[in-house]
Amino acid sequence: MTGLVSLLLLGVVFLVGLILIPIGLPGLWLMVLALAVYAVVTGFQAVGWGTLIFVVVLAGLAEGAEAWLGFKVAKRFGGSNRSAWGAVAGGLIGAIMGTPVPIIGNVVGAFLGAFIGAVLMELSAGKQFRDTLGAGWGAILGRAAGAAVKITVGLVIAIIGIFAVIADRLASEGWKRIVSLRPPPRLRLRRNRSVAKTSYAPTTRSQPEPGLT
After folding, report:
1. What DSSP line would sit under 171-200, residue for residue?
2. 207: alpha, beta or left, given left = phi > 0 and alpha = psi -120 to 50?
């Protein structure tokens, strides 16, 4: 029962982490932290150091890919580094302002905030409003592409973690069944003694009946 509860809790945290990614919050690192806590609590039996290092590297690569896509797409649509940073800050502010409508409001606020942040930063650089719309649109597309990459990596981390936990539970239950099929030590000792007595019992020769000799 304890193993099932821990597995369900880990799955819930993974789901929350995936929901936080489009909002712009560190959902990937929440998933990595949950997997690390589970590894420590279980004594690194189900999740080892190799698995933890692998998921940390995946999360780091996803963060780098999101930043690269944000700047790359923003520049492709006529934006600058200022618009990319404005999109990041605006996305966080928009996600917070969308909190009264959970999840949907956060996601919409994050993308709308990225657009407004990119446009405002381009306006502060002296550009005309019409010329800043491309940067705003690029900020939305860059944020969407980065979120897609991070959600994909988050699904990979969730699959790795849940598979490791289930595999460990199945292996543990299988070993318990094998052990339960073995007779208790006292019974095995009695069996060995009975076998020894039977194999080493002296053979008695039959005596001829009187009158037959």
Report:
1. HHHHHHHHHHHSPPHHHHHHHHHHHHHHHH
2. beta
DSSP secondary structure letters along 43-99? TTSSS-HHHHHHHHHHHHHHHHHHHHHHHHHHHHTT--HHHHHHHHHHHHHHHHHTT
Query: What residues of the chain score a pLDDT lower than 70?
Result: 1-3, 172-213
Q: How far apart are CA 181 and CA 173, in angstroms?
A: 13
- pTM over 0.85? The answer is no
Handedness of CA 89, 94, 99, 104 (dihedral sign): negative
Which candidate, 132, 135, 155, places its Cα nearest to that of 143?
135
What's the pLDDT at 1?
44
pLDDT score recorded for residue 7: 80
d(CA 42, CA 93) in angstroms, rounded, equals 38
Contact 185, 59 (CB under 8 A): no
Q: How many residues does the chain have?
A: 213
What does the pLDDT read at residue 213? 46
- Share of the chain residues as helix, strand and coil, in percent rounded to the nearest 5: 80, 0, 20
Question: How many angstroms separate the Cα of 202 from the Cα of each of 173, 192, 194, 206?
Answer: 46, 18, 14, 13
